[in-house]
Amino acid sequence: MKFKKTKRNSHGSTIEYLPSDLLIEVLTRVATSSFTDLFNAKLSCRNFLEASDDKFIMKNISIEKFPAIPWWQVKDEVSSFLKACKESGNPEALYRQGMMEFFSWKKVESGEEYLKRALEMEHMEASYVYGIILLCKGGESNEEQGMKLLNAVKKSRKLGECRKKTKAFILSMWIRNPIVKCQELVNHHAKTCGRRNNGGIGGKRGWWQWIDDREDNEDKDVEEVNYCEGCMWEDEVSLFCKLFR
């Protein structure tokens, strides 16, 4: 008895029958974890290559392996890629643009707008930096919103990571618009707060430093030093501002 041989579908022909929405979903998941894996997927077949240009993928792609500040001349295709990420609303790209415009190019309003767009997509570093900026501006509304953003970062248990990444970014670029009002802000709260005790500016700071390996013990330590919320974040602002000195 003879059996008829059947031709197995190749990898490429199988993908041809998948709907475009599914291809985009697959590539988006790949892109969020690794740009390299997305690049390899694009090379694997024509269908992936065509789907990879979708804005949803560019919005979610990870660009953390790209230098925050490309001091050297980048290739045209890299520059075009990063520009496409920003135009597609990629939160990391928006955050980087906001940092450059606010701190280096002295374009305060547009810099803040980019940071706000990034934090609206739950970008932690953007939330952290914009929260600091609002506290430095002062005013009841700004301070309330700023502490709300910072508390959300702290609640996510990514405060230490935000500090590290923000510090590295700031130290990598030319600063032309430093934040200079932090000391006035801290002094203002210190005069009205009765819970500052020995912590904070001018006293024994205790745990509240940029010590990232104690992130897991924050709640216990805050209770021990008896800081109020205002004292805690104003000291954070002061530490942040020291990066510009």
Automatic annotation (TrEMBL):
What InterPro entries does the entry give? At1g67623-like, At2g35280_TPR_dom, F-box-like_dom_sf, TPR-like_helical_dom_sf
The record's annotation in Pfam families points to: TPR_27 (PF23310)
For this protein, the record's Gene3D superfamilies field holds: Tetratricopeptide repeat domain
Q: Start and end of every At2g35280-like TPR domain?
A: 65-170
Q: Please state what the protein is called.
A: At2g35280-like TPR domain-containing protein
